[in-house]
Amino acid sequence: MGLANLIAHVEIVVAVIAALLIGGAAICTATSFCYLGNKFLEYTARQPEIAQMLMMRMFLLAGLVDAFSAVAVATGLLLFFGKNPFVADIFRAAVEHIA
What we know:
CATH class: Mainly Alpha
CATH topology: F1FO ATP Synthase
Oligomer: single chain
Number of strands: 0
Strand content: under 5%
CATH superfamily: F1F0 ATP synthase subunit C
Number of domains: 1
Order of helices and strands: HHH
């Protein structure tokens, strides 16, 4: 009974971590895009002649922000739907403890 409870607790913790990764990526990406767009519009209003250069840099940074969120979401989904490596370690420790 103790092994089943331990595995259930590990699965719950992994699910919470996966949810935090996915939710945190969404919140941070939305915040970053808002800040990035705000600064782009602010500096374009100040100096319209450098709008093309700023737009190029804004899209580069938007791609980097989006790549970070994609990695975080992929990691969260892998933890949530993939094979949990922590459960294999629990089984290995339980077998060593019994033997």
